[in-house]
Amino acid sequence: MNSQPSAARSALQAAVKYWSDFVARCVSQRLASDRFQEFVQLVHAKHPLPPVLVADFFLRPQPFNHVSLDPRIPPYIQILTQLGYIDAPSILRVLYKYSALHAHDRPNDVKDEEDIKKKEEGEDGKQDKSLRWKDSSWAEEVMFYHVIRTMVEGSAFTDAKTGLELVSIICKWMDLFIHVSSAFAADILTNKTDRQGREEMETARAAFVPLLLRLVDNHALLRIVSKPFAKGLRKQLSDSLGNFIQTLQPVPPFVERLEIFRTQTLAQLDPVDKKKQAANAVMDELLDSTVGLGGFVIPEIPISNSRASLYVYLNAALVGRPALDDAMLYAFLNNKYQGNQQSSAVDLIVASFDLLANAVFRNEGPKDAHLLRSFVVNKLPLLLCQLCHPEFSATSAEFCITEALNRVDTSIFPTASLMFDESRNNNPYTESVREEFCAACALHGLIERDHLDRILGETSMSYDPSLEKANRDKLVSDCLSDSVKIQNTISQLEKVDGNVGAVAHAIVELIRLHCSNKDTTALKQLCTQLAQKPQSLDIILLFDKITSILEPVCTLLDSWRYEEDQGEYQPVYEEYGAILLLVFAFTYRYNLSPLDIGIQSADSHVAKIITKSHILRPPDELSEQESGHVTGWINGLFDNETGGLGDDLMSSCPPHEFYLLVAPIFQSIVTAYTYGYINDESLKGGVEYLVDTFLLPSLVPAIRFLTDYIWVDQKEQKSIVKALQLLLTPSSISGEASTMLSSVKNLVAQPLEHSLRTYQRQDPRNQDIEPLLRSLKENLPLSRRTGGAEHHEMESWASSSSTGLSGAIRHTIQGLVQWSMQPGVNVMPTSYTHRQIIAGLRIIGPSRLLRIIMDEIRQQSEMGNASIVNDVAAALVSATDSTNEAPPVANLLDAAGSMQPSPLRPQGLRDALKTAAEGYKRVQKHDPFMAEATVRLHRRVEMLMVVPQAQAILQTTDMPLDLGGDAMAAAAAAGADPMAVDGLDATGLDTTGLDMGLGADLGLSGAGGDGDLFGGLDTSMDMFDGWDSMDMGVN
Description:
This protein is 60% helix and 0% strand. By secondary structure, it is mainly alpha-helical. Helix 2 (33-46) packs across helix 4, helix 7 packs parallel to helix 9 and helix 38 (791-799) packs across helix 39 (804-820). The radius of gyration is 35 Å and the shape is elongated.
């Protein structure tokens, strides 16, 4: 009875020995492929074996070679496949068995060194070193492509059983790549690196991905997998795919194909078990707890201080109107680093340099570098003075700066000697920042001046030891005594020497003094020069709040009255307009509302001008007096017989009333020209008045009106273009007026350019549009800084994946996590702009955006990256949204003594997170992980946003500003904020309005914000240019 099994065993042993000897001789004698094909058929005929055993003989490590596969083997494998002796599953299974990647895999069931030792040793206790290859990456690469070829030819599998085996071994390969990737990520966090092992893994994975793509596109294989008996394998394939996709960083475009296959194709094959679902629902009801949010106990996980966190926080604060609140930043750092000032100072410096490097890499240097470079050199040292004082000594501060600069890549921020290396392509925005930053730190006493060369590692080429720390009061005194110095003071805002904070505060103080003294002549000069330099406004806002600048200006304009013995009225218009132009410069550049700039009264003339001067009112809505003023202005501008504009008209129509009539006046001009009531010569003559300095500021609301009006009335479009030609490119204009006109064009360039291009598409033969566009070219980069996404960015995000903007945000979060896991200094910052998150809030809605973030927390946590992804997510939620800050309410009671209602604002990410966390019970029933993750993130965000008591008091303290060293020392000794005397404002929150072409009512506070993607959008703006046929793909 036992003779037959014994004979079969003997035959198998003989076959195994025969095949082993055959393979060894083929390799040792380098047998040619044609001879091999002849001999292998004889061997297989005499000793037939299953495909997996045949493949094992050729692909396993040999006793004489366990380093890497012999190059003769792949041609043999090709012949064996053609003969049908091996197939795709057998090749992949043997490759997997002997892969060198297993050496990097750390299974969860290996608990300690003893387990590892047992795993590596055989039963006899001796280590089996020939078990796997030492380097299998090139062989796996070749074999993967060989399997792809068999799939293309249709010979990879012949029946359902073989097809299932193929899917099964593909899942094992994906799991192996997942485990090895996680192991390498863990090594990075513990400062262990195996560059060769990582490169080998990436080589094999790069060849495996095309194989995986070919598999998911194979319809025959899909039919096999869809059978009922493959249910378990389908789940395995879905789970493996979901985890494997997360290892692909940066995210390649083909990932979307894999996601669609996993979430749609596979998901549709398994219907929901309704009975099980109902049973689970009943059980969930029984287990429902009455424990509140505060009592919900969740397991704590360590959350790291990732490199991406401060990078995101600073990007958000500076992406639009500079809205970095110093007190909130200090609170964020203190809470995040638990009082570790050294770590917070080092990471703050590194993040600031990363921010500037990111702008350069994204080709946003011309638009952003002026601000970010000034932030690094002028603002950052002042922040460090507060962060490192008084507990820190100069030695500790010097250590932090040295340590941070050692992490800053010299290839991006070169040293002085590298700037003279002709083989390098130095960038003008980054080439001298390292030295400038150190010089500014020396200026503020953070480092010893004698130690500057040591910190830089070479002799400084640009440091000026004679430079002294500027004093705000002295700057103010100099400007008050000599008005010529005002222009020089304003020009100093463009410097990067560490003194710009004092300069900015001096300018703000000058504005306050001139307003208080009602010195409108001096204020006119100051406002005109500031309005000419929009980027200087960005710099000022690094150091002061918008309300500190504009509140006294708006108060002055609202209280403006004619003198009883007023002689001439044109100079009054000129002064009023020049001062109002500065208000326009801020509100238009940053898209601010009256509340944003500190105007509380609804009766404010300035508030009405900001919100209504560019909006056309129908004639029946104008009062009799207003209609008379419109007629008077039209006659004064175009009727020469009336003698032009006279004092009678301007005396009866104060400036604030004139600005509210700008839209009706210009609508009347356009209509009159369209129907021939005004000829070309009269129109040209009237425009000469409008481009004079006393009326030029009115062109801001006027052109804004024309920008919107060209969309509305097609009959009058050519007349509007004609008016714009005369206004933007006047044939006769003074030098002073030309400078002011350039300031006006800066404010209106972006929306006007959008309207003109839209009209150009409607009338492509019109030759008058292109000259107008050319006249705006230089003004476009200076036009807007609102935090709203440019339309080309929206197009890019919408088309980057099948899920549109949602997919782009997912990829951004993944990029931030992966970047934070990379060690060393030579790691380029991942591309990031907070404009994408702001766009997501407005278009996707805060609730759905939060779900995207939470989904990424789940995916990254499954990959072992929970500590990093939670830190990144908390930064995204905590980050400042300058387009959606609650305006400060100066007075709790109005004039009648009633409580003022708080200003409403759209729901933000933090609000959505709080709502989601409070509803954790509903989620916990069906998704315990998501409930815990949401509450954990909510608690993390709230912890980061807590303002310590000392800083809360500081926010309400009105301390005098004195940039002298004595005042700073006195303040420090008293326990106050030294930054209040060193050019830093640590009070209040700035606010910025929303641009991007969105209307004021976005409907984001309720479900409508998520359901109606374009509800409440103002299509007159520039955000949706060219989107007529665009599929946003928001999921």
